[in-house]
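Quick review question:
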């Protein structure tokens, strides 16, 4: 991915200076096991954060150790990718006669307090609709490579573009409608709505890749394959098989590997929000 000459976003908020140590041993592992059930992207933050908040023990601020050159470069990379999503969605909203409100992206280490509640790094990157911020611990990218077998800078960019996709859903009112509907229906139907919401965010990530390729020429050979590989490796079916040894489709909240790959591809090939209407399609 050709990113080093790209514009840096001014919307990155670095909260890594103060580190909040974890509580009793096992708390982080418990959160990780919960996260495996609906792993890493776009998870409903109120569900896991509330649990994490109950687990929080004796938090004392300490100074974070000096950061490595690798971390510094990754911070730069995230800033460029965020700026690129800003350029993409500012253009799309403007073409539709609207105005895009750019989200903040918060970098944290270990634990963070958001408007949606308390979160630990083990739950992965997330978007909080209450403050319209994206949150990410850079250590997640090592997990993406080592635990989920999804290396590559474009896979890392896909993570950000997916969470920004949730921000777009918030701005256009989709996520609010979905959350309201989910409160009035049984769990099985609620899960299906969650899947449609997540797959649409994948499709919106594909729209970003489309614009990045056509307008700014940052996509290199193999980049899209990296994104598709990441989408495949974080499907509910694959994660459930890894964590539980079996698959229960009715409990899916993010979509299968096939579905996630399909909808990112739709966004990338079509490049329009209209093509990403997962809610009007019966078979995803």
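Suggested answer, residue by residue:
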């Amino acid at each position: 991915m050709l990113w080093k000459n790209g514009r840096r976003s001014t919307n990155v908020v670095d909260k890594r200076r103060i580190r909040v140590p974890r509580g009793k041993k096992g708390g982080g592992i418990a959160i990780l096991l919960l996260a495996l059930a609906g792993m890493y992207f776009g998870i409903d933050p109120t569900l896991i954060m509330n649990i994490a908040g109950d687990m929080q023990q004796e938090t004392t601020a300490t100074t974070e150790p000096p950061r490595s050159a690798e971390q510094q470069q990754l911070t730069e990379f995230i800033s460029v990718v965020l700026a690129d999503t800003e350029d993409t969605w500012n253009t799309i909203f403007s073409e539709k006669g609207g105005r895009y409100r750019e989200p903040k992206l918060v970098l944290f280490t270990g634990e963070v307090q958001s408007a949606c509640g308390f979160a630990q790094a083990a739950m992965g990157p997330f978007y909080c609709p209450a403050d319209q911020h994206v949150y990410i611990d850079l250590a997640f990218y090592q997990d993406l490579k080592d635990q989920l077998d999804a290396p590559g800078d474009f896979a890392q960019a896909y993570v950000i573009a997916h969470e920004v996709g949730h921000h777009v859903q918030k701005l256009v009112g989709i996520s609010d409608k979905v959350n309201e509907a989910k409160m009035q229906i049984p769990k099985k139907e609620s899960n299906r709505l969650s899947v449609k919401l997540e797959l649409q965010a994948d499709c919106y990530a594909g729209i970003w890749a489309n614009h990045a390729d056509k307008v700014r020429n940052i996509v290199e050979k193999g980049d899209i394959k990296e994104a598709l590989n990441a989408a495949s490796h974080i499907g509910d079916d694959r994660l459930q098989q890894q964590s539980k040894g079996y698959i229960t489709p009715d409990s899916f909240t993010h979509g299968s590997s096939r579905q996630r790959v399909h909808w990112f591809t739709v966004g990338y090939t079509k490049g329009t929000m209209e093509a990403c209407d997962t809610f009007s399609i019966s078979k995803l």
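Why it works: Strands lie at 12-14, 18-19, 62-63, 104-107, 111-114, 117-120, 126-128, 133-136. The chain has a mean pLDDT of 82.
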